[in-house]
Amino acid sequence: MQYPKFILSIFILLVIHACQTDVKRIPASVESLLTDGNSKVWMIDRVQIAGKNQTVKDPKNKDLLIFYASGHFVLQNFKNFGAQLPTKGRYSIDDQSRTLKLIFQDQIWVFQIQPLSKSKVLFKPLKDSDVPYEFLIIPFPELN
Hints:
Number of helices: 2
CATH superfamily: Domain of unknown function DUF4822
Order of helices and strands: HHEEEEEEEEE
Shape: elongated
Helix content: 10-25%
CATH topology: Lipocalin
Number of domains: 1
CATH class: Mainly Beta
Strand content: 35-45%
Radius of gyration: 21 Å
CATH architecture: Beta Barrel
Number of strands: 9
């Protein structure tokens, strides 16, 4: 009955060795997080201006951000979705510096991107941004 113990010992050694190898992780691009390779609908869950919470409590009154893999985005209030024309623009991402530019017709919003998890991303405004807003976005939740 020593045979199963020997196999188990070899397996444990392989697992330990695999955990210690110097395999480099390839970081996922921020764009793939925001678009999932096609398009993705996010809800702005929290808004802060100069450290003061400006968050709207009712999910139906929150704003949506839709990122398309084509480099375009849409910003619109959920309650008005489909009833009014959305605000549209283009975005650009620098994966090295983890910055996002939302380019509107008359403004450019610039953020430092801080992925907190696959389902939470924090946008912190940079000095050259036309707005001081800090956003926490989450994937659009299932409606009840």
